[in-house]
Amino acid sequence: MSKVVAVVGATGAVGREMLRTLERRRFPVSKLIALASARSAGQKLPFGDGAVEVQELGPSSFASVDIALFSAGASVSREYAPIAAKAGAVVIDNSSAWRMDPSVPLVVPEVNPEAALTRPLGIIANPNCSTIQMVVALKPLHDAARIKHIVVSTYQATSGKGQAAVEELQAQLVSIGRGEQPEARVFPAQMAMNVLSDWKPGELGYSEEELKLVNETRKILGDPEIVVTPTCVRVPVVTGHSESIHVQFHRPLTAAEACELLRAAPGVVLTEGEYAPGKEPQPLAAADTDPVYVGRVRADLGVPGALNLWVVADNLRKGAALNAVQIAEVLT
Ligand code: A2P
Which residues contact 203 (CB under 8 A, 6 or more apart)? Predict the structure, then answer.
């Protein structure tokens, strides 16, 4: 049955991708309601054969909405997700606001789709982009050998920080090309030709982003004993997060076994073969595509039975909009 779908934050980097994803996957939308701040009210966004006019988000935005996809930041979600749920919508929230609430399922459809069916608050959380691609790649290995410890280093694209961040990176590159000093307003320092840690501080010297990888991975895989050692950095890429992952198991796993599992894993595209420069999964090639690309599956050189992997995915698609729409598909 067709659904009335609201997208909150429809003008943003993820919101626009949500509209495209609903269309591309032919999600049965009877009516699309595009919501954003007062700044964008009246703006037209392409959808279907025509366009939808953006409306200002308000308490009465959700009458008759079946599914509300939120991607307008945590404070908007904290305030409006309960309002949307009370109005009868199922909320699928891309922000961090509700992810660790024990009454809110945190769902990656390739990993724990059944969790989406129990949602006492009417809210389902979409995990952090870096967590999603990591758990899609690690789930089949966890099922086979139970993960003990993950050491993950991320190389995250600027679109994960929103549209304004992408525009600042592009402006910085233009300034550098002209021999001018680039300006940094959205980023805490120059992003072009640099690598930054640009997330809010968390605890114990880790950023909030790093702690999301720890806590969300445990919640989605349903194993609070998994140790996650994270380092997150931003690289001057527009779209596509990359991750270097070292993983230790309760029982040893060979690279050949892991490849066999990954070949059959839903949502995964495995790059196999000997190391060859330029043949590994890359963000530029992953951008505007759906899969989680896994490559460079290697036995660790020092820890017997442990593996090293290179994992790349489009952070706006599988890392955000696609995962949210796949959750909506679980509900239909
Ligand atoms: P707007 O474009 O009107 O500012 P991004 O992550 O790319 O920065 O996008 C954030 C999205 O969240 C945009 O669609 C933005 O709308 C929306 N947004 C931000 N703050 C609010 C708010 N207070 N109410 C409604 N939408 C908001």
Answer: 211
The ligand 1 atom nearest the CA atom of 13: 7
Domains assigned to the chain: 3-126+320-331 (3.40.50.720), 131-314 (3.30.360.10)
**Is the distance from the beta carbon of residue 39 to the nearest atom of ligand 1 less than 6 Å?**
yes
87 phi and psi angles, rounded to 5 deg: -75, -5
Say how many Å lie between the CA of residue 12 and the centre of ligand 1: 6
Per-residue pLDDT of the chain (332 residues; tens, 9 = 90+): 899 999 999 999 999 999 999 999 999 999 999 999 999 999 999 999 999 999 999 999 999 999 999 999 999 999 999 999 999 999 999 999 999 999 999 999 999 999 999 999 999 999 999 999 999 999 999 999 999 999 999 999 999 999 999 999 999 999 999 999 999 999 999 999 999 999 999 999 999 999 999 999 999 999 999 999 999 999 999 999 999 999 999 999 999 999 999 999 999 999 999 999 999 999 999 999 999 999 999 999 999 999 999 999 999 999 999 999 999 999 98
Report pTM. 0.97
305: Cβ below 6 Å to ligand 1?
A: no
Q: How far apart are CA 15 and CA 321, in angstroms?
A: 7
Task: Look up tokens 């049965």; give the residue.
Answer: 28
Q: Is the CB of 9 under 6 A from ligand 1?
A: yes
